[in-house]
């Protein structure tokens, strides 16, 4: 595929500084790029690489381009050599955008996306009775569909996928190898589920009686809405009663556990090794960073960011950044961390001050008695 730079600028809503008619054949990292490639810079620390890159064009953020930061010397040299404000004559042309990461992702998608060619249903797949199979699907060898499974149009099921009774997979979804989707699970459109993930495992429900733990039947289900992506080796438990829900647009990293009856709001980000306990409700646009742990039966408001390795054991109001274990407001945690390494020194000073206060109190006490006797 070959695209004019001005076509890419139109795609990402950017503007070209230089020749918009140059041909772009691919996209690559700034150090690996070759002639004909477009690359990107999202941080000033990569600016020195501009003078060394072999790329033909660079996506660059308007905040970097319009700033007057000290680290911009390589960029200024390139702009001077290219005749900024005129038609540049230098080999490197810039594509100015608001969000270079987003522009990079859109162009990468354009160059890497392959046309979808359905493979049909393999004769080595097991298809249960009463299944509903849509148009242009790809069902690879060793896929197993139980009874009454519904597979909508253009779904791809890779080898080793298991789908339980009565479950439904929406249009244009991709289920990678060795994913297990249990019974009565509803998955929306354009959902991506990576290898090894289990959707619909039993919630961890037990009750103690007579010194033994007895299993509580887990008879609920799961709803995964449109445009959700779930990483490899995740587990999402079915509800005890009712529904575990992952709202549309949410992205879940690898090795995440989501317990029974959890609700996760729209467009949230759940990073690796997060654990969310049962019946917890997560708001919209929430970010749970790596290894965060969330207790059961709590609510986390919209737009909350939980810093990595934090433990959340209580409700969190919207629009906060929190960290620590148990988690506290992030600014308070930073202040506490700044003090932590100085605690031995602070303790010594406090001990010295206490001794001085005791001595002063003793002197004042003696002086007071002497003064009283002198007046007698």
Number of strands: 40
Strand residues, percent: 25-35%
Q: How would you classify the helix and strand content by structural class? A: alpha/beta
Low-confidence stretches: 81-90, 369-376
- Identify the quaternary structure here: single chain
Number of helices: 6
Strand order of the largest sheet: 8-11-14-17-20-25-28-31-34-37-39-40
Care to describe what's here?
By secondary structure, this protein is an alpha/beta fold.
Give a nutshell description of this structure.
The protein is of the alpha/beta class and 376 residues long. It is built from six helices and 40 strands.
Keywords:
single chain; 376 residues; alpha/beta; 12-stranded mixed β-sheet; 10-stranded parallel β-sheet; 21% helix
Write the layout of secondary structure elements.
Blueprint: E1 3-4, H1 5-12, E2 15-17, E3 23-24, E4 26-27, E5 37-41, E6 57-61, H2 62-65, H3 73-82, E7 93-97, H4 100-112, E8 120-121, E9 126-127, E10 132-133, E11 138-139, E12 144-145, E13 150-151, E14 156-157, E15 162-163, E16 168-169, E17 174-175, E18 180-181, E19 185-187, E20 192-193, E21 198-201, E22 206-209, E23 212-215, E24 221-224, E25 229-230, E26 235-237, E27 243-246, E28 251-252, E29 257-258, E30 263-264, E31 269-270, E32 275-276, E33 281-282, E34 287-288, E35 293-294, E36 299-300, E37 305-306, E38 311-312, E39 321-323, E40 328-329, H5 330-340, H6 343-375
């Amino acid at each position: 595929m070959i695209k004019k730079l001005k076509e890419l600028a139109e795609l990402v809503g950017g503007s070209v500084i230089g020749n918009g008619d140059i041909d772009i054949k691919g996209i690559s990292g700034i150090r690996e790029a070759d002639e004909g490639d477009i690359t990107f810079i999202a941080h000033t620390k990569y600016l020195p690489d501009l003078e060394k890159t072999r790329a033909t064009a660079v996506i660059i953020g308007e905040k970097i381009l319009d700033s007057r930061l000290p680290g911009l010397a390589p960029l200024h040299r390139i702009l001077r050599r290219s005749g900024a404000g005129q038609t540049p004559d230098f080999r490197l042309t810039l594509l100015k955008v608001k969000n270079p990461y987003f522009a990079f992702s859109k162009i990468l998608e354009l160059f890497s996306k392959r046309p979808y060619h359905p493979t049909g249903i393999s004769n080595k797949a097991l298809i249960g009775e009463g299944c509903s199979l849509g148009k242009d699907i790809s069902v690879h060898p060793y896929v197993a569909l139980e009874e009454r499974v519904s597979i909508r149009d253009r779904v791809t099921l890779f080898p080793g996928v298991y789908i339980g009774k009565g479950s439904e997979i929406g249009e244009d979804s991709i289920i990678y190898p060795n994913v297990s989707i249990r019974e009565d699970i509803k998955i929306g459109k354009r959902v991506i589920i990576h290898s090894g993930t289990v959707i619909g495992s039993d919630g961890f429900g037990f009750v103690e009686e007579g010194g033994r733990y007895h299993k509580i039947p887990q008879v609920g289900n799961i709803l995964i809405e449109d445009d959700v992506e779930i990483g490899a080796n995740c587990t999402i438990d079915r509800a005890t009663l009712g529904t575990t829900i992952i709202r549309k647009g949410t992205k879940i990293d690898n090795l995440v556990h989501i317990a029974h009856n959890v609700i996760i709001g729209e467009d949230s980000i759940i990073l690796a090794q997060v654990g969310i306990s049962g019946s917890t409700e997560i708001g919209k646009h929430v970010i749970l960073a790596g290894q965060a742990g969330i207790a059961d039966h709590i609510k986390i408001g919209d737009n909350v960011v939980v810093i990595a390795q934090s433990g959340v054991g209580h409700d969190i109001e919207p629009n906060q950044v929190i960290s620590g274990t148990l988690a506290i407001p992030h600014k308070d945690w930073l202040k506490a961390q700044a003090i932590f390494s100085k605690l031995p020194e602070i303790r010594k000073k406090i001990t010295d001050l206490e001794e001085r206060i005791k001595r002063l109190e003793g002197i004042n006490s003696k002086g007071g008695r002497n003064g009283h006797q002198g007046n007698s």
